[in-house]
From TrEMBL, chain A:
The keyword Transmembrane helix applies. This is ABC transporter permease. It comes from the Bacteria. Keywords: Membrane, Transmembrane, Transmembrane helix. The chain crosses the membrane at residues 20-36, 42-67, 88-112, 124-147, 159-181, 201-221, 233-255.
């Protein structure tokens, strides 16, 4: 598995797209920092970018990579290699290289700007960690979709739909249910609903660390009380890990049974 | 002509006569008079007491004659936490240039560093108060001045701390140039009318920078309120002027710059609201004029909570606030006109400096949050941006007459000094 991971990783490292992705983040970081001059504001803008763009790129890239390397996969399948290690290797290769582009691309300008001497270091590292998690989660989901759909168009369609659901539609449903049940106490429900969606969870985790959390008022205080404790932090990271592990398990299971 | 000279002569002679009669008592460690209490006892109406530098361990100094108490080089009066330090019970008393420390803390009596009771024409200036409970406590006293005092408290909780300057049933008092920090309420007024509050700095107070209850016709001019629990709280008061103040950095889940509750006919003019969670919270307040203010980088610039009618918001700058206006209800009787909104995206074809498309300051999201506060957790989600945009294009939920017909294209330059 490690060999295939290494191969996929190096393959992607050589590809143009990871450089474009890397350069995009590098540029974004530089522009944000040197036009804005305010570290915590830059972190807020970055948050907006990360919770929208990282899942989108993870999904699209994952699906694309799977379909593009299909012939090579078939070649590999003819060799005496375990199936699960082929697909898991590919998945980890893609996700790691994407996460690396993100972390290095954003990390470099911030490091030069002097993030290590700043109090925003924790907000920033939380941003990168959630960004990394989101990459792993959405690439895994993309692989699951690609593995279960032979048809490329269908696969892309489902992948985009998945992103749309997580980033937009879920919040819409969430909002509707909050409005519909407004006569009931909703703190527990909103906590629960936030935990279920990795995009929302990342957004709330970062928001609570910023100054802007004071705007959240009473609800914010409930969330702060929950996420402020080590139990809350551990639970939310466990949730994120679950979001990585469960799709990965599905990759493994589908790959084992799949007929080529 | 002759007559006038005669009157002048009479006045001059009268004053010199008074000077001749009044005497100065000096207090110091090596003087014949060693304590302030002793000096007060010896003094007659109109006398001066000059206190030299040193530490005087005295509490409960009662001043019952119209005398002038002057400290030279800031002598210290140590109250040893025995209760009140100076109590003034008569007219025309001046206290100038002391450092007063260790006022007693009590849960039943409001001990103060200086208390003025039922008096007129008092002047309290250049004091430095530290380790205090209440600072300067004016009760049923009129026509006096509180000038240039410095108060540094150590307040941690509301229930065992006091206010720096406290006015109760007072009229025509000037509170000017004071610097109050780390107390409960910086300046507190209850049932007090015609008070001028000018050039004060009120910082880091755990409750309010300035607090009004049932006080009418007051002027609040050129003050700075910074990092308080809340900047100014105006409650149940009428005919107030709030001008040229800087209200900033009152940040926290329950913090705001200016709270208006049941306030009628007030003028809020030329103030700067900077980085407050809520710039102004208004509830049940009518006929207010908000003109020429700057609302910069607040969470909410203006939060209108209900029962507010005939208010005018004109010529203000709304710059980079998360929410410009929060409004509940669908009826609007307030007028928004000629403001500059940094979130305005319209155009100006005839180049007259006024946008051709009206601006709607209430976002759908702020309307939703008002209805169901829990929804705030969706802040900065992509979905919220999308519905805000669609509401902006065609308003359905927000009051359709709540709009600025003449939004300015450029930031308004206010003449603030």
């Amino acid at each position: 598995m490690l060999k295939i991971l290494k191969y996929s990783f190096y393959d992607l490292m050589r590809s143009r797209w990871s450089y474009v992705y890397f350069l995009f983040y590098l540029l974004l970081g530089i522009v944000l920092l040197f036009l804005n001059n305010d570290l915590s504001k830059a972190v807020i803008t970055l948050m907006n970018v990360i919770i929208i763009l990282v899942p989108l790129i993870g999904t699209i890239f994952g699906v694309m990579y799977y379909y593009n390397s299909r012939e090579f996969t078939e070649l590999l399948l003819a060799q005496p290699v375990k199936r699960s290690s082929i697909f898991l290797g590919q998945y980890f290769g893609v996700a790691t290289s994407l996460a690396m582009s993100l972390i290095i691309g954003l990390g470099l300008p911030f490091a030069f700007y002097g993030i290590f001497n700043s109090s925003a270091i924790w907000d920033f590292s939380l941003l990168l960690i959630t960004g990394g998690f989101l990459t792993f989660i959405f690439t895994a989901l993309a692989f699951v979709i690609a593995l279960s759909n032979e048809n490329k168009i269908k696969g892309f369609g489902y992948a985009i739909l998945l992103w749309l659901f997580m980033a937009v539609i879920y919040d819409g449903l969430f909002l509707m249910s909050l409005l519909y049940f407004e006569d009931y106490p909703l703190d527990k429900f909103s906590l629960f609903a936030t935990m279920l969606n990795p995009v929302d969870l990342s957004r709330v985790l970062i928001l609570l660390k910023l100054d802007i959390s004071a705007l959240l008022g009473y609800t914010g205080a409930v969330f702060q009380q929950f996420f402020g404790t080590s139990f809350g932090v551990i639970l939310s990271f466990v949730m994120l890990v679950f979001w990585v592990v469960i799709p990965t398990f599905f990759i493994w299971r589908i790959a084992k049974r799949k007929d080529f | 002509m002759k007559n006038k000279f005669f009157i002048l002569f009479l006045f001059v002679s009268l004053f010199s006569l008074k000077n001749l009669w009044s005497q100065t008592i000096t207090v110091c460690a090596t003087c014949p008079v060693k304590s302030i209490k002793e000096a007060v006892k010896q003094a007659a109406e109109g006398d001066s007491i000059l206190v030299k530098k040193g530490v005087y361990k005295e509490a409960n100094i009662k001043i019952d004659k119209g005398i002038t108490l002057i400290g030279e080089n800031l002598p210290t009066i140590d109250g040893q936490e025995k209760g009140e330090v100076i109590t003034i019970g008569t007219d025309n008393v001046t206290i100038d240039g002391f450092k007063i420390i260790n006022v007693g803390v009590s849960y039943t009596t409001d001990y103060a560093a200086v208390r003025v009771v039922n008096s007129k024409g008092f002047l309290i200036q250049n004091l430095e108060l530290e380790k205090l409970f209440f600072g300067i406590y004016l009760q049923k006293s009129n026509d006096g001045k509180v000038l240039n005092n410095k108060v540094r408290g150590e307040a941690v909780t509301e229930f065992n701390s006091g206010n720096a300057v406290h006015l109760w049933y007072c009229k025509n008092v000037e509170v000017i140039g004071n610097d109050v920090q780390n107390v409960r309420d910086g300046i507190y007024l209850e049932f007090s009318d015609n008070i001028t509050i000018k050039d004060n700095v009120s910082k880091n107070n755990i409750r309010y920078g300035l607090h009004f209850m049932f006080s009418n016709n007051n002027y609040v001019i050129n003050n700075t309120f910074e990092t308080n629990g809340a900047g100014i709280a105006l409650m149940f008061s009428k005919f107030m002027q709030v001008e040229n103040n800087i209200i900033q950095k009152n940040w926290g889940t329950a913090a705001y710059g200016l709270l208006l509750k049941e306030v009628n006919d007030a003028n809020i003019k030329n103030n700067l609201f900077f980085e407050n969670t809520v710039g102004i919270t208004v509830e049940g307040s009518n006929r207010l004029e908000y003109t020429n203010n700057d609302f910069t980088s607040n969470g909410y610039a203006l939060k209108v909570k209900g029962a507010c009618y005939q208010n005018h918001v004109i010529n203000n700058n709304f710059l980079y606030n998360s929410f410009d206006i929060s409004y509940n209800g669908r009826i609007n009787d307030n007028k928004f006109d000629n403001n500059f909104w940094s979130n305005y995206t319209g155009y100006d074809l005839n180049k007259n400096g006024i946008g051709d498309v009206p601006y709607r300051p209430v976002k759908l999201f702020s309307y939703i949050v008002n209805r169901t506060p829990e929804t705030i957790i969706l802040m900065r989600s992509l979905f919220i941006d999308i519905i805000d945009f669609s509401e902006k294009v065609s308003p359905v939920f927000t009051p359709d007459n709540l709009l600025d017909e003449n939004p300015k294209m450029k930031r308004i330059d206010h003449d603030r000094n």
